[in-house]
Design a protein that fits this description.
By secondary structure, the chain is mainly beta. The chain has helices spanning 2-20, 202-208, and strands spanning 59-70, 83-97, 101-114, 122-135, 140-151, 169-181, 186-199, 210-224, 227-240, 248-262, 265-278, 286-302, 305-317, 325-338, 343-358, 362-379, 384-396, 405-417. It has one domain (2-417): Beta Barrel (Porin), CATH 2.40.160.
């Protein structure tokens, strides 16, 4: 009984923790394809393995070929450059499950060739992700989640990242959490998270690459059989790689709950205050104090159909030279649905509002980002599927129009599973 309670507490906490700083989500169709290295929607875990010597192993291989069109390869406001492209990618999944340890890992990579893009025509990308949950004792559960990606295209889901093409960069995010069940009703979760943005171009690395570390401690009380309330403290130092002088230290005091409506419908909420001590090479030190909020909801409305919604308000690294922070509200909705055993589709909307205000450095202005994706998949058989997708990105900043752009990306391709 205690083991089940501990695992349930941990799973709810892990969903909230990973959601607040955005574990790596592969970008839109122009970059690493989202279904490479993963089974198609509705596919079981046994898989099809034409490589006989791998039969019975927990390894699942995949590959894809895609042809697509990008209307704005440099994400510019005026005179956008368009290009057709070809994307080749491959990936491997590994899964392990036992009475005390569950582990899932993924490794993938690819290359995109733009036919008419001036200059360098190739984008290389790759990613590694691992998630593990270990029941150390009947009362103690340890979880580890890590994801590292090498990317060339911007990803609006990454906190503190840029919304424009800025060359190749590396994003990494690792969290370690320990949940301990002291009594039937009282538990604690202690954790550490490390995430970083690292730009390969030296000038960007000197001014925008950073490391964010978060220590958090929560105290949790099972108020009702499906409702856990909590208080939580977080400490978050942010340090810049190149000595840009934009370091900061944040304190968070939060209250919230984890609600399990049923095994398929869950909601977590955190509300509170954020205090941040900022450094800046232009206007010196300052202190920010404001509200903080994060919410994550997940609902499985069919055997292979899911809906998720998340929202967050708080500060983030600005992504601009000499600007310490921005205040950001972001929310996203994602739906995956299997219409039949062969036909599935996905739909996603991400909305973000950034507010910049650094007196003496940059005048106050708002930036609004809308990112929508839609995709369909047709499973020909257990080894081959066909896919097509479309992504639309719009950045609106009337007070700083040089930041504005729109982008349309469309693709069609074939996926192979082994």
């Amino acid at each position: 009984m205690l083991a089940a309670t501990t695992t349930g507490v941990l799973n709810a906490q892990v969903q909230s923790f990973s959601g607040r700083d955005s574990f790596f989500m592969p970008p839109g169709p122009a970059d690493y394809p989202t279904d490479v290295g993963q089974r198609p929607v509705g596919e079981n875990n046994t898989g099809f393995n034409p490589l006989g010597f791998l039969a019975g192993t927990p390894l699942k291989f995949s590959a894809s070929v895609r042809e697509g069109y990008d209307s704005n390869v440099f994400t510019t406001r005026t005179d956008p450059t368009a290009s057709m492209y070809t994307n080749l990618a491959a990936g491997v999944d590994y899964s392990f499950g036992g009475p005390r340890l569950k582990l899932d890992a993924n490794l993938g990579g690819g290359v995109t060739y733009y036919y008419t893009r001036p200059g360098n025509k190739n984008d290389f990308n790759g990613q590694f992700a691992l998630n593990a949950v270990y029941l150390a004792t009947p009362k103690l559960t340890i979880s580890i989640g890590t994801s590292t990606a090498y990317l060339a295209q911007p990803d609006t889901n990454i906190i503190g990242g840029t919304n424009r093409v800025n060359g190749d960069y590396i994003y990494t995010n690792t969290s370690i959490d320990a949940a301990y069940q002291w009594t039937q009703k009282f538990s604690t979760v202690t954790g550490y998270q490390f995430y970083a943005n690292y730009y390969l171009e030296q000038s960007l690395n000197d001014t925008q690459s950073f490391v964010s570390q978060t220590l958090h401690q929560s105290f949790r009380w099972l108020l009702l059989p499906k409702t856990t309330i909590l208080v939580e403290y977080r400490a978050n130092p942010i340090t810049y790689w190149g000595g840009a002088g934009l370091n900061s230290f944040g304190n968070f005091a939060l209250v919230g709950f984890d609600q399990i409506f049923n095994p398929r419908f869950k909601w977590t909420l955190r509300l509170g205050a954020e205090q941040r001590f900022n450094q800046n090479p232009v206007d010196g030190d300052s202190v920010y104090f404001g509200p903080y909020m994060e919410s994550n909801l997940s609902y499985q409305f069919g055997p292979a159909s899911t809906l998720s919604w998340n929202a967050r308000y708080g500060t983030e690294p600005s992504g601009l030279t000499n600007v310490t922070q921005r205040e950001t509200f972001r929310t996203g909705l994602a739906v995956n649905h299997a219409f039949t055993p062969r036909i599935s589709a996905n739909l996603g909307f991400n909305f973000e509002v950034d507010y910049f205000d650094q007196p003496g450095v940059v005048g106050s202005f708002y930036e609004t980002i809308f990112d929508a994706t839609v995709g369909v998949n047709f499973k020909v058989n257990r080894a081959i599927s066909l896919s097509a997708g479309y992504q639309f990105v719009s950045v609106y900043a009337p007070e700083n129009i040089n930041f504005e752009y729109t982008r349309n990306v469309a693709f069609a391709g074939v996926n192979f599973f082994f």
